């Protein structure tokens, strides 16, 4: 006997990367930013008043929406704040009218939410170079198509033409969600596609580029008709007042975010070159991590070796990832320690 719905009994829970607080751990497993967030965000938190905490936050997060809209050159009613972009994925799954299409491998949380809502899932594999299967995704004709771009855990990105064609091919049939969690480390964004196609919805987060994973703030960008369904499925006060206050301060400090992203991109190039010298294959990354295959393909063994030395990277038991590791870009010092800890060939 079970107290739960059959689909809940049958699903497996999302497995987050280890969050060890132990001293001396080098955490290169959950794509956190190694640099601190904007001091202005911390000031906003320190300056919170009793009145701000006594009352409920603005359920629409209007001031944050105005700041985010200004940054992206869209009006504030194109922005819907979430308690992390994970929270927006929940709203999308709740509002969803039919099957979802999900490329594979990608961020597993889309599948988790579809399973919770008991929605059919059409899994569409990336090709062996992790390219987006545009035509197959159009043919799947799902109510919602999730594309993380740049993608996790592969780090690769589809180009403008591919996403444009995908959006056009799905128009009138379903929503194209472009999850831009890693856009701050990428060469391009898809804001123009959200303006061009009525069915394109973008997801953004302050967890990666803005070093605010602990704050829990993400948002959707899309036309108000598309956002209307999500407003209905949103929890009433999903984003707290402290989170909104710090989020506004962080998003207004572009200089700080961009300087850190530049450092990470430089470290990414260095780490890529170092691994390639050691015979690894590294896929071109537009994110703050790399997907890399060791020369012997013994990824799991290397994952365990590093873990025993308190260096956490991510290993996925996915058919296409079994011989690869996902390594978050840390500071140069952390990356060098990871390189030194690799088993000698
Ligand atoms: C990290 C990540 C998220 C989650 O972002 P939060 O705002 O922290 O919930 C969403 N999508 C992808 C692809 C991610 O890698």
Tags for this model:
345 residues; alpha/beta; 7-stranded mixed beta sheet; 3-stranded antiparallel beta sheet; globular; binds pyridoxal-5'-phosphate
How would you describe the overall organization of this protein?
The protein is α/β, with parallel strands linked by helices and 345 residues long. Strands 2-8-7-6-5-3-4 form a 7-stranded mixed β-sheet, with helices on both faces. Helix content is 40%, strand content 14%. The protein starts with 5 loop residues before the first helix and ends with a helix. It binds pyridoxal-5'-phosphate. Pyridoxal-5'-phosphate binds next to helix 5.
Structural class: alpha/beta
Morphology: globular
Mean pLDDT: 97
| Rg estimate, integer Å | 20 Å
Oligomeric state: single chain
Q: How far is the first residue's CA from the last residue's CA?
A: 53 Å
Adjacency order of strands in the biggest sheet: 2-8-7-6-5-3-4
Helix content: 40-55%
Largest sheet: 7 strands, mixed
Count the DSSP helices.
Answer: 14
**Which small-molecule ligands are present, each listed once?**
pyridoxal-5'-phosphate
Which stretches of 5+ consecutive residues score pLDDT under 50?
none
Taken as a percent bin, the fraction of beta residues is 5-15%
Order of helices and strands: HEHHHEHEHEHEHEHEEHHHEEHEEH
Question: Could you give the count of β-strands?
Answer: 12
């Amino acid at each position: 006997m079970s107290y739960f719905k059959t689909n809940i009994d049958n699903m497996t829970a999302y497995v987050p990367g280890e969050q060890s607080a132990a001293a001396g751990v080098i955490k290169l497993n959950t794509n956190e930013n190694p640099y601190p967030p904007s001091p202005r965000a911390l000031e906003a938190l320190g300056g919170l008043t009793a009145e701000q905490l006594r009352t409920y936050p603005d359920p629409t997060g209007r001031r944050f929406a105005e700041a985010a809209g200004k940054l992206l050159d869209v009006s504030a009613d194109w922005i819907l704040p979430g308690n992390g972009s994970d929270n927006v994925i929940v709203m999308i799954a709740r509002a969803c009218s039919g099957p979802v299409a999900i490329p594979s491998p990608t961020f597993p949380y889309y599948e988790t939410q579809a399973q919770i809502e008991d929605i059919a899932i059409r899994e569409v594999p990336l090709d062996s170079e992790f390219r987006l299967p545009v035509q197959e995704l159009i043919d799947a004709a799902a109510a919602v198509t999730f594309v993380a771009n740049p993608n996790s855990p592969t780090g690769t990105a589809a180009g403008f033409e591919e996403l444009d064609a995908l959006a056009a091919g799905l128009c009138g049939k379903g929503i194209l969600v472009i999850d831009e969690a890693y856009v701050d480390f990428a060469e391009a964004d898809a804001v123009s596609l959200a303006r061009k196609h009525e069915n394109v919805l973008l997801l953004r987060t302050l967890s990666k580029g803005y070093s605010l994973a602990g704050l829990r703030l993400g948002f959707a960008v899309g036309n108000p008709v598309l956002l209307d369904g999500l407003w209905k499925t949103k929890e009433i006060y999903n984003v707290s007042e402290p989170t909104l206050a710090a989020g506004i301060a962080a998003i207004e400090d572009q200089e700080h975010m961009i300087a850190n992203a530049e450092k990470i991109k430089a470290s990414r190039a260095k780490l890529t070159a170092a691994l390639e010298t050691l015979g690894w294959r590294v896929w071109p990354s537009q994110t703050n991590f790399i997907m890399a295959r060791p020369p012997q393909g013994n990824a799991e063994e290397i994952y365990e070796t590093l873990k025993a030395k308190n260096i956490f990277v991510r290993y996925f038991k996915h058919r296409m990832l079994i011989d690869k590791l996902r390594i978050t870009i840390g500071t140069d010092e952390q990356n060098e320690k990871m390189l030194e800890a690799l088993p000698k060939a």
